[in-house]
From TrEMBL:
<keyword id="KW-0808">Transferase</keyword>
<feature type="domain" description="GGDEF">
    <location>
        <begin position="92"/>
        <end position="226"/>
    </location>
</feature>
<feature type="domain" description="HAMP">
    <location>
        <begin position="8"/>
        <end position="42"/>
    </location>
</feature>
<dbReference type="InterPro" id="IPR043128">
    <property type="entry name" value="Rev_trsase/Diguanyl_cyclase"/>
</dbReference>
<dbReference type="InterPro" id="IPR000160">
    <property type="entry name" value="GGDEF_dom"/>
</dbReference>
<dbReference type="GO" id="GO:0016020">
    <property type="term" value="C:membrane"/>
</dbReference>
<dbReference type="Pfam" id="PF00990">
    <property type="entry name" value="GGDEF"/>
</dbReference>
<dbReference type="GO" id="GO:0052621">
    <property type="term" value="F:diguanylate cyclase activity"/>
</dbReference>
<dbReference type="GO" id="GO:0007165">
    <property type="term" value="P:signal transduction"/>
</dbReference>
<keyword id="KW-0548">Nucleotidyltransferase</keyword>
<dbReference type="InterPro" id="IPR029787">
    <property type="entry name" value="Nucleotide_cyclase"/>
</dbReference>
<dbReference type="InterPro" id="IPR052163">
    <property type="entry name" value="DGC-Regulatory_Protein"/>
</dbReference>
<dbReference type="InterPro" id="IPR003660">
    <property type="entry name" value="HAMP_dom"/>
</dbReference>
<protein>
    <submittedName>
        <fullName>Diguanylate cyclase DgcN</fullName>
        <ecNumber>2.7.7.65</ecNumber>
    </submittedName>
</protein>
């Protein structure tokens, strides 16, 4: 009707009541359609948010150890490579601590897997509490952990962090059945660029230093040096 009025130029014409009612009904239909579109948009936004949260959850599972909640080996390797690239540009240092539980096998064999899991969870928590929030704690596998310290001023900073971790392990752990067990870790320290020029060599150097700590009596930290025996 409005189109006909525009073509005829009869702008002063009054619309019959039934046609006004048609416009009112049409307006209500448009409002209902708009409300439905808004509802569908809200549903789509909610679905998108749920998908994003699901993707984040999957990514977290892919990057973290399911038992301790710490980063896994793949995540550690990726961030170590990134940290060394940035340090090479800025001229800063990057430290790696390689940790092995001194008593895990005996506790796991004597008290069972539940006790072994409890030990790993508690050790991970104590390591996390001894380092900076910006430092990365990872479970590399089995009873081995690693800490990525970036940035560092020097080797002394890494040694001080290792000492804090050792101190955190001095208090025993009480298992669910009331049995008290002692904790202990051996720590190897390696720092870029002092001890290695690549991510793989740096982790290897820290690993070798850790075995040196075990050879010297366990429950201590050793810094990598070229004369450290390469075999475990």
């Amino acid at each position: 009707m409005a189109h006909t009025l525009r073509l005829d130029g009869q702008f002063e014409r009054r619309l019959p009541t039934f046609e006004i009612e048609e416009f009112d009904a049409l307006g209500q239909d448009f409002n209902a359609l708009l409300a439905e579109i808004q509802l569908r948009n809200a549903e789509l936004v909610d679905r998108q948010l749920r998908l994003e949260r699901a993707n984040q959850s999957l990514q977290h599972l892919a990057d973290h150890d399911s038992l301790t909640g710490m980063a896994n080996r793949a995540r550690f390797a990726s961030l170590l490579k990134q940290a060394l690239t940035e340090a090479a540009v800025s001229g800063s240092h990057v430290g790696v601590l390689y940790l092995d539980n001194d008593r895990f096998k005996s506790i796991n064999d004597r008290f069972g897997h539940a006790a072994g899991d409890a030990l790993l969870i508690d050790v991970a928590r104590r390591i996390r509490g001894a380092v900076r929030e910006s430092d990365l704690v990872a479970r590399l596998g089995g009873d081995e952990f690693a800490v990525l310290l970036a940035p560092l001023r020097d080797v002394g900073d890494a040694q001080r962090v290792a000492d804090k971790i050792l101190l955190a392990m001095t208090r025993g752990l009480r298992l669910a059945d009331g049995v008290d067990i002692e904790l202990g870790v051996s720590i190897g320290i390696a720092v870029f660029p002092d001890h290695a020029s690549s991510d793989e060599l740096l982790l290897q150097a820290a690993d070798h230093a850790m075995y040196q700590a075990k050879r010297l009596g366990r429950g201590r930290a050793c810094t990598y040096s070229p004369d450290v025996r390469m075999e475990p």
